[in-house]
Amino acid sequence: MTCTGNGTWSGTPTSFAYAWSRCDQAGNGCAVLSGATVQTYQVQQADVGSTLRVAVTATNADGSASATSAPTAVVQAS
C-alpha cells in the first residue's frame, strides 16, 4: 500500500483530490490510473517494474492548485 500526505499549502485548503499514475522506472511516461483517486493506493501486480506518482490538488474559495510527487522506488514483486 502506498499513501501520500497532503503537503504544505498556503491559503488554507478546504479539500484535497488525488490522482495516482503509473510511470516508467525513471518516473516519466506516466499514465493516470483509472479510479485511483483517494489518498491511499493499493499497489497492484501490474505496477511491478514501474514507479508511482500522485498529483494532489488543493482547493479553497480562491481556486485550486496542484503538485505532483516525486516517483516512488521501482515497485518490486512480493
Write a structural description:
- The chain has strands at residues 2-3, 15-23, 31-32, 40-41, 51-60, 63-68.
- A four-stranded antiparallel β-sheet has the order 3-2-5-6, with no helix packed on it.
- The protein has 78 residues and is mostly beta strands.
- It is built from no helices and six strands.
Keywords:
78 residues; mainly beta; four-stranded antiparallel β-sheet; two-stranded antiparallel sheet; 40% strand; elongated
Percentage of residues in helical conformation: under 10%
Kindly, what is the distance between the CA atoms of the first and last residues, rounded to a whole number of angstroms? 12 Å
Q: Give the rounded overall mean pLDDT.
A: 94
Note the main sheet: 4 strands, antiparallel
Assembly form of the protein = single chain
Determine the number of helices (DSSP H or I, runs of at least 4 residues): 0
